[in-house]
Design brief:
- The structure holds two protein chains of two kinds.
- By secondary structure, chain A is mostly beta strands.
- Helices cover 0% and strands 56% of the residues of chain A.
- Chain A has strands at residues 4-7, 10-14, 19-25, 32-37, 43-49, 55-58, 61-66, 71-76, 85-91, 97-98, 102-107.
- In chain A, the strands form two sheets. In chain A, strands 2, 4, 5, 9, 10 and 11 form a six-stranded mixed beta sheet that branches. Chain A has a five-stranded antiparallel beta sheet with strand order 1-3-8-7-6, with no helix packed on it.
- The radius of gyration of chain A is 13 Å and the shape is globular.
- Chain B is mainly β.
- Chain B contains no helices and eleven strands.
- In chain B, strands 2, 4, 5, 6, 9, 10 and 11 form a seven-stranded mixed beta sheet that branches. A four-stranded antiparallel beta sheet of chain B has the order 1-3-8-7, with no helix packed on it.
- In chain B, strand 4 and strand 5 form a beta hairpin.
- Chain B starts with a strand and ends with a strand.
- The chains are: A mainly beta, B mainly beta.
């Protein structure tokens, strides 16, 4: 059974700081996705990582995938308040298994 | 371009009542999914359908039934609602279609509807 673990589950950070969210998964997968969810809203796709070593960047967010280590990271550079949200990683092909989410709060 | 549309957005049921959540997608996707989201537990898969006419159980199927009416529509039915089914329900679709080669670069990301907030009292 595939298990997906994210850490930390809660993250408060000051504006302008850097931080990394980690996503570990228990069985082999060639693909991983990152989603963002704002309170009371649906999930918005951020990144699609389809191969070992894949790196994607959008603004202050950068995601990477190491399929051998079964690890993905979501790096936040110089955080701003607008990045406050819950971030989920998800693993799979036919069906996605989600991590529990990381609730990020960026403080002024 | 609507993407994935769910109805209703909000619903309150009494224990034992039944209801059907509707979902439709206009992206010509093969696969459709129903997830539930509970605080601190991420999203858990209830049922999915890889093609019209086929459905498979996910992680938490008990108490639910589904129908893949056609390629566009995938409904979720609660036959006898229970308070434990209070949750936010999301429908999603993706372009996944079997068989998918091991090294495939095909994007199978899931696109989500706006969610249905269901309360069972």
């Amino acid at each position: 059974e595939l298990k997906v673990e994210q850490n930390p589950l809660f993250l408060s950070m000051q504006e302008g700081k850097n931080y990394t969210i980690y996503c570990n998964y228990s069985t082999t997968s060639d693909r991983l996705y990152w989603y963002r969810q704002d309170p009371g809203k649906s999930l918005e796709s951020l990144f699609v990582l389809l191969s070992n070593g894949a790196v994607k960047q959008e603004g202050r967010l950068m995601a990477s995938l190491d399929t051998k280590a079964r690890l993905s990271t979501l790096h936040i550079t110089a955080a701003v308040h607008d990045l406050s949200a819950t971030y989920f990683c998800a693993v799979g092909r036919r069906q996605l298994t989600f991590g529990s989410g990381t609730q990020l709060t960026v403080l002024p | 371009n609507a993407g994935v549309t769910q109805t209703p957005k909000f619903q309150v049921l009494k224990t034992g009542q039944s209801m059907t959540l509707q979902c439709a997608q206009d992206m010509n996707h093969n696969s459709m999914y129903w997830y539930r989201q509970d605080p601190g537990m991420g999203l858990r898969l209830i049922y999915y359908s890889a093609s019209e006419g086929t459905t498979d159980k996910g992680e938490v199927p008990n108490g639910y039934n589904v129908s893949r009416l056609n390629k566009r529509e995938f409904s979720l039915r609660l036959e006898s609602a229970a308070p434990s089914q209070t949750s936010v329900y999301f429908c999603a679709s993706s372009d996944y279609r079997p068989p998918l080669p091991v090294a495939s670069r095909m994007n199978t990301e899931a696109f989500f509807g706006q969610g249905t907030r269901l309360t069972v009292v």
